[in-house]
């Protein structure tokens, strides 16, 4: 699936929840999907224009975008496509790879910053989890994505602890 198709999927998916303005589409993607997906205004508005021209969305009497039946069919089609893999880009790992130049203290500062960010993300996910009803058949899907974020965050915190130890404990030299 091309990046454009993934943006189309995010926008159509957001509009499957309720009619909304382009601004609200961006806000919903940020607040609802933000722990694992992002779209900019620069991606959303051209996508909405293409979707409207193709008859996949229309405007209602309040000038809000609504998903049309062909749009719903396109959404299902996109959902059934294999997800696109994105090339990994992790600024922390890039810096740690060249950690010899940064120094141990600089690497430890990166871990401190990353740990704070992950703990904040876990707090935000806990707030989202508290708002969701596990008994609601529709909200269980959102809970699955929250769970993925929580597992990822806990794994990252464990990796940070392991990595700090690797940097602060002198390496064992084999006895000769």
UniProtKB/TrEMBL annotation:
Q: Which domain of life is it from?
A: Bacteria
**Which organism was this protein described from?**
Microterricola pindariensis
Q: Which residues form the Transcription regulator PadR C-terminal domain?
A: 89-167
Alphabetized PANTHER family for the sequence: NEGATIVE TRANSCRIPTION REGULATOR PADR, TRANSCRIPTIONAL REGULATOR YQJI
Instruction: Using the record's annotation, list all stretches that form the Transcription regulator PadR N-terminal domain.
Output: 11-75
Positions in coiled-coil regions: none
Q: What is this protein called?
A: PadR family transcriptional regulator
Q: Which residues cross the membrane?
A: none
- Pfam families given for it? PadR (PF03551), Vir_act_alpha_C (PF10400)
């Amino acid at each position: 699936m091309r990046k454009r198709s993934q943006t189309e999927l995010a926008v159509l998916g957001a509009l499957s929840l309720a009619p909304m303005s382009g601004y609200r589409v961006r806000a919903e993607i940020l607040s609802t999907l933000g722990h694992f997906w992002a779209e900019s205004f620069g991606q959303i508005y051209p996508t909405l224009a293409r979707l409207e021209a193709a008859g996949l969305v229309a405007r209602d009497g309040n000038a809000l975008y609504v998903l049309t039946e062909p749009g719903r069919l396109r959404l299902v089609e996109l959902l059934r496509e294999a997800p696109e893999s994105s090339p990994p880009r992790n600024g922390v790992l890039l810096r740690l790879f060249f950690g010899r130049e940064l120094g141990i203290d600089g690497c430890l500062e990166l871990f401190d910053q990353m740990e704070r960010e992950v703990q904040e993300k876990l707090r935000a996910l806990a707030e989202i989890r508290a708002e969701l009803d596990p008994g609601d058949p529709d909200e269980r899907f959102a809970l699955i994505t929250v769970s993925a974020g929580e597992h990822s965050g806990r794994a990252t915190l464990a990796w940070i602890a392991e990595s700090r130890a690797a940097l602060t404990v002198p390496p064992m030299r084999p006895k000769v």
